[in-house]
């Protein structure tokens, strides 16, 4: 039975459809996307009870999880929350534990990504009760009087349930050449030596697990995911720019200085607020923008010599 959700403010903001990257039919693609989105906007305020037979007494002893479910490939399906009740005494404390319990015990068709269960692989990123987090290292709110909402990362195309299409994110990551680039030939099998101070510059950058929690929390990225690279990718661009072993610093800065790859940052800091690894992409972006400005000034100065 369907019920209307009163907490409309919690309605997630994402596209209830998929990106059909390999389709040549642009009109059909647009129509599919728009129609599935409209369908989502009409229907998302509904809750389906997974087990309508549960009594109020039974429910009061368990935690309610309202999980976004939708399969865009099924034309009879529609975006909705499905309500599941879980006895928190039976599971470990993280949101991923609840999701795996539900998948194992209630409904194996629930789709989500996960791998390491240790906050290392970055694959279980999703919205847990209003914040983009890694579900494996984010503790469940244990207040049984309040439901926990679990939805996909915001403003992403939904592939199914909690799985979103990461293609654009990874394509953007690839554009920054996220690897060491050298001009001088390598001497045999010698390592590229770094001073302790130079190595320290990479702290707070190399730990990024590319979960996209920051980019998908960024309002500028919501509006221009096609041309603005977003905090996660820009922080990694900065990571290679400040790496003392890399010899393509100016080329990297030149590429980033083009159009609005960087400049759409409004410096509000949602990215750093949400990062589940405690990193500070906003700070990196500020440093990066300063380096780009300095590079532009150097370029003008050398052109006028
Ligand atoms: S500080 Fe910049 S990158 Fe971070 S969320 Fe705000 S606009 Fe996005
Ligand atoms: S900076 Fe943090 S939130 Fe952003 S991708 Fe890296 S680990 Fe995830
Ligand atoms: S499962 Fe790997 S980060 Fe959560």
Short description:
The chain is built from 10 helices and 9 strands. It binds iron/sulfur cluster (2 copies) and FE2/S2 (inorganic) cluster.
Structural class: alpha+beta
Strand/helix succession: EHEHEEHEEEEEHHHHHHH
Bound ligand species: iron/sulfur cluster, FE2/S2 (inorganic) cluster
Compute the separation of the termini in Å. 75 Å
How does the overall form come out from the CA principal axes? Answer: elongated
Q: Work out the helicity level.
A: 25-40%
The average pLDDT is: 88
Strand content: 5-15%
Which strand order do you get reading across the main beta sheet?
A: 1-2-4-3-7-5-6
Number of helices: 10
Number of strands: 9
Report Rg. Answer: 22 Å
Uncertain stretches: 1-12, 19-23, 37-43
Please describe the biggest sheet, giving its number of strands, its sense, and whether it closes into a barrel.
7 strands, mixed
Topology, element by element:
Elements: E1 2-4, H1 26-43, E2 46-49, H2 56-60, E3 63-69, E4 80-86, H3 95-105, E5 125-128, E6 131-134, E7 148-151, E8 158-160, E9 163-164, H4 167-175, H5 196-200, H6 219-223, H7 230-241, H8 249-257, H9 270-274, H10 281-303
Parallel strand pairs: 2-4, 3-7
Antiparallel strand pairs: 1-2, 3-4, 5-6, 5-7, 8-9
Helix pairs in contact: 7-10, 8-10
The protein binds iron/sulfur cluster (2 copies) and FE2/S2 (inorganic) cluster.
One iron/sulfur cluster binds at residues 208-214, 232, 235, 275, 277, 279, 281.
